[in-house]
Amino acid sequence: MKWYKLTLVFACTLGFTGTSCKKNLLEVSPSATYTEENFFKTANDAILAVNGIYAYTLSDNFAREIVNENVLTDDLAPQMEGTTDHLWGLSNGLETPSGRNHYPYRFWSSHYVIIVRANVFLARVDAIQMDPTLKKRLIAEAKFLRAFCYHRLVWRFGDVPLLTKDPNEEPALPERAPKADVVKQIYADLTSSYADLPVKYTGADIGRVTRGGALLLLAKEYLYNKDWANAAKFSGEAMTLGYTLLPNMSDLFKPGNKNTAESLFEFQAGDAKGGGYTNLATRYPNNASAAQQVPGGGASYGNISVLQSLVNEFERLDGSRFDPTGIDVTTNNTQYQNRDPRLGISVVFHGAPYGTATWNRAWTPSGYTFRKYTSTRTEQTALNGTGLNWIMYRYADVLLVYAEAQNEAVGPDVSVFAAINQVRARVGMPPLQNTDPSKPTYVADKNAMRDRIMHERRVEFAGESSRYEDLVRWGLLKSALENKHLSVGANNYRITNWQEFRYLWPVPQLEIDNNPNLKQNPGY
Question: Could you say which architecture CATH assigns to the domain 6-196+506-514?
Answer without folding.
Answer: Alpha Horseshoe (1.25)
